[in-house]
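[agent] plan:
  1. take the single chain provided in the ticket
  2. run structure prediction with default settings
  3. attach structure tokens to the ticket
  4. add a short note for the reviewer (M.T.)
[agent] executing step 1
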Amino acid sequence: MSDMSGDFQRPRPAARPAAAPSRRSRSLVITAGVLVAMFMLLSAFASFWTERLWFASVGYSGVFSTLLWTRIGLFLVFGGVMAATVAVTIALAYRFRPVLWPAMPGMADDGLDRYRQVIAPRVGWMVAGISILMGLFAGASASGQWRSYSLWRNSQPFGTNDPYFEKDAGFYVFELPWWHYLTDYVMALAVIGLMATLLVNYLFGGIRLSARPGDRLSSAAAVQLSVLLAVFVIAKAVDYWLDRYDLVVSSGSIFTGMGYTDDKAVLPAKEILAGIAIVCALLFLANIWRRTWLLPSLGVALFALSAIVLGLIVPGVVQGVQVNPNVPDREGPYIKANIDATRQAYQLDTIERADVSGEAISGGGRLSSLDGMTDSVPLVDPKVVSEIFEQQQQVRAFYSVRDVLDVDRYEIDGRDRAVVLGVRELDQSGLAEGDQNWSNLHTVYTHGNGVIAAYANQRPKDNSSQSRSGVEWAEGQEADESDLTELTPDGYETRVYFGELSPSYSIVGQPEGGDPVELDLPKGDSAEESEEMTYDGTGGVEIGSLPEQLLYAVKFGEPNLLLSGRVHENSRILYDRNPRTMVEKVAPWLTVDSDPYPAVIDGRIQWILDGYTVTDRYPLSQRESLETMTEDSLQDNNGFQTLPTDEINYLRNSVKATVDAYDGTVTLYAWDDTDPILKAWDGVFPGVIKSRDEIPESLKPHLRYPEDMFKAQRYQYQRYHETDAQDWFKGSTRLEVPKDPQAVDRLQPPYRLFTDVGEGETWSLTSVYVPREKDNLAAYMAVNSDATDEENYGKISVLELPNERTDGPRLIANALSNDEEVRAELVSFTTNGDSKPVFGNLLTLPVQDSFMYVQPLYTKRAGESSYPILRFVLVSYNGNVGIGTTLRDAIADSLGASPDDAEAQEPSPETGEEPAEEPTEEPSEGATEEPTEAPELPEGTQARIRELLERADAAFDEAEEAQRNGNTVKWARLTEEARRLIEEAIEISGR
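[agent] step 2 finished; step 3 output follows
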């Protein structure tokens, strides 16, 4: 037994070292916790410091500093007041606690003695901890109010008063939100102080629930609670008083603003409740001396009952008994106030309206008359031709353009020409998967290259290589495609480091004695060769030192920023370089238009952006989601950075901004310098916005009326074109934007073109209306988009049609696609099933007192590398459909005339179109039910066919030679040209 006992006792000494692993485990846990905390602190510091460096790199350190110190100031002040309030209330409750000890004679055991014994020695730490925690929450909330505080400090008058309180609109926009926050903050102070007082008094005997009714509260506790409740009720009284003003900016079931029930029931109720709250507060204060809770309790009961009766029951009765049976009569004056305010807030009150008869031009010379009215109509669809841009001008897979291109105008050869253009941006997803390593993605493939542009209203003049796509290039990859380049004597800087498709970050810069590594794209014959270069601009942040490299390695989670030899003493890092993101960062108070667009200005590619000042507090104006107002078939996701609710009821295009595509220079210009919101923000960030007079003259022709603002205006105009309150309520005259014929579940987008609404041809943004739930044309809207015409820029004109039926876009699109002549012309392209028609945007054009519809028609072969080719132009005029290879031919066809009737052989001065030496197609006599023998070919046609086939054969020979030399782009172009020549020969032969 002794042996066995010894055996059982041996393990005991060995158990002692088990404590060592436990200590080591605790040490490891502590170490891991410290490391995690240090990493979190380092990450936070890296985020903060790199953000500071970014603002410094674009020259807006003042914005960063103003934001930082404003938020820190609000955090400290409001967080400090909250912490002090909590500390004082807890300290007072503890200081004046009753004297208690365990098993005190005459006191029932409440079971809290052990908690008191634990907390009492540590009450100082408890006060500090709770106060700091509450202060942090309050400070964080206050720092988020930097917008309201900044606007309150720099409030401006609007010069318009509401009809109910006679307050300037600036009071509602700038002051009321801040007063609401202060009131809510005071109520939060009282509530949290009240909770702390109740908890401490209950814990230390100031509140004893088991005591007799008169002894449940100590005198000190009663005083504290009375004061805090009085403060809360006083703040609530102020809140009720301020809520009166919210009635003119709150949304009702029918419209935004004061309604009959609000005016007759809700407004008096809030005033009465504010008075009752003041009485309750006085009763609570009186309780400090009287020490009876009867009167305060009665006051609170009366207050609660009044809130239910006056705040809920009475308004419900008034709405149900007086308003609902007589809405037009009761709400009429209030609807009228809403109409007037909405039209003013969205600048609809300056729209000029005119009636048109809808009658087409009649009599002889119609074709000649229409020539001057339609010669600048764009035939190139910015959405459809993006595929042409990709296939014809993107000579590398890692370049791309946006799905929807932009439309701008340039003065070329002394004339304003509309062009469709896009930037050849870097698209790293086009790299082979095996090539997508860190070095390539962040040091080699760093930028895009150049602008691609096609004339919007011009077809190729001859049978050159351009004609295979049906568009004529104004700027492209080939040396002879340089009309925009020639506008600047020394050309323009083509490299695009700041764009909509730019990578997350790029490392640029060349070490001393090193070789360049950034891949660039040369132009012209050397386009197939690789060329390396180094960024020498001033954009980006210098990261030549180890601390900066460490911070950015933490920011991007990339150790190569520390380890790679391509990060050296001359390196710069480019990031946050989407133009819209950049403007939103340097002007965080702006809502930026969803469509930045490029322009070649003074030898640089500049991104141009429109900035809006918005609010949802403009009195009586209709509130609506900005995203809803700007939605159409071309708008996928605008991602607006506006108010927290995305709802606005006031909109101004207050700022024009530019971002240099090469060095990232951001410039903000005041555009609507009369806007009070812009003036207020200019006071918050002085010197950030340049005056309108500083806009360069070379920039003005490219400034335009912004699309999102126009879409918001056309959305509101659907209802607010009606100024009579009774008719507005009935909705019988309500308009709506038609559905896009090519995307029936989305609205038709506005189109940018030269148009004439009665005062001469101007560069405009246009849209149309149809009656609600109908497809006939009701009105045509156009806004002058020529920023060089300061007197008329932004002038909106609306042409209204009579109630007689005039087909709208959807009916016209149906007529065009089902027209027998159109279908017959498409047979030669679609017979084999390898091509399909692609209908472009359907444009509506005012022609004196009537309207013409124009639609380009493309065909597209099946296959991944195919692209649409512009084949025909369709026209609908006065109920007749026409088709032709040019707009003039299509108009002539719709009129039943010959293009030769009026100077057909003269090229159009605007479009530059020239007739072919011989027609490429013979007009069809119409389809027959039975097949006929092949007609004899006209004289000269055989020679024309032979010429086309010889040219196709020569193109094939050149293509084979280019393929042998490794020039795949030239091979593809020549092959496509040869195919087109063969197709043209087939068309002429009629087979």
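[agent] step 4 note for reviewer: Confidence is low (pLDDT under 50) at residues 1-11, 462-467, 902-935.
[agent] ticket updated
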